[in-house]
Amino acid sequence: MIKKIIGLIVGLIVALIVLVGIEELGHSIFPVPQNLDFQNSKMMENFIKTLPPMAFVFVLLAHFSSAFIGSSVTSIISKTNGILGLIIGGLILVGAIINIILLPFQPIWFVVLDILLTFAGAWFAFKIAFNVYLAQTRVK
């Protein structure tokens, strides 16, 4: 039981580190203006509309990678069949959906890809962990 709890905690921490790291890399290439008021939705909308598509790619990469890596780390540490990893992927997906709700003026292509890729990251990690788990149980 303790391995499962540790796996969830470490997986979530790793997922968040990956998420923030990739998004910060994107912000270093496509910086946020210093005078941007995040509470002002009109300013946010205008800013987002000026972003090139590549800026959104960093967010997609961050969400996919954090869901995949966080889920994988959770499954490896907890030594489970991948179900616990899906919890981490689900949390990242919920965060992506909250982002979409809070910033409704994002391009539709981004919204669709964000949900699909975040889910896919968690699902691929689950499938890998499940296949590893099955292979290990067959060997014993």
Comma- or semicolon-separated keywords:
140 residues, mainly alpha, 5 helices, 0% strand, elongated
Structure, explained:
It is built from 5 helices and no strands. The radius of gyration is 17 Å and the shape is elongated. The chain has one domain (2-139). Helix 3 (53-78) packs antiparallel against helix 4, helix 3 (53-78) packs parallel to helix 5 and helix 4 packs antiparallel against helix 5 (108-139). It is mostly helical and 140 residues long. The model has no long low-confidence stretch (mean pLDDT 94).
Order of helices and strands: HHHHH
Give the rounded overall mean pLDDT: 94
Span of the ends, CA to CA: 21 Å
The overall number of domains is 1
Rg: 17 Å
Query: What best-fitting shape do the alpha-carbon axes yield?
Result: elongated
Main sheet, how many strands, which sense, barrel? none
The counted number of beta strands is 0
> Unreliable segments (pLDDT under 50, ≥5 consecutive)?
none
Quaternary structure state of the chains depicted: single chain
> Class by helix and strand content?
mainly alpha
β content, as a range? under 5%
Number of helices: 5
- Portion of residues within helices: over 70%
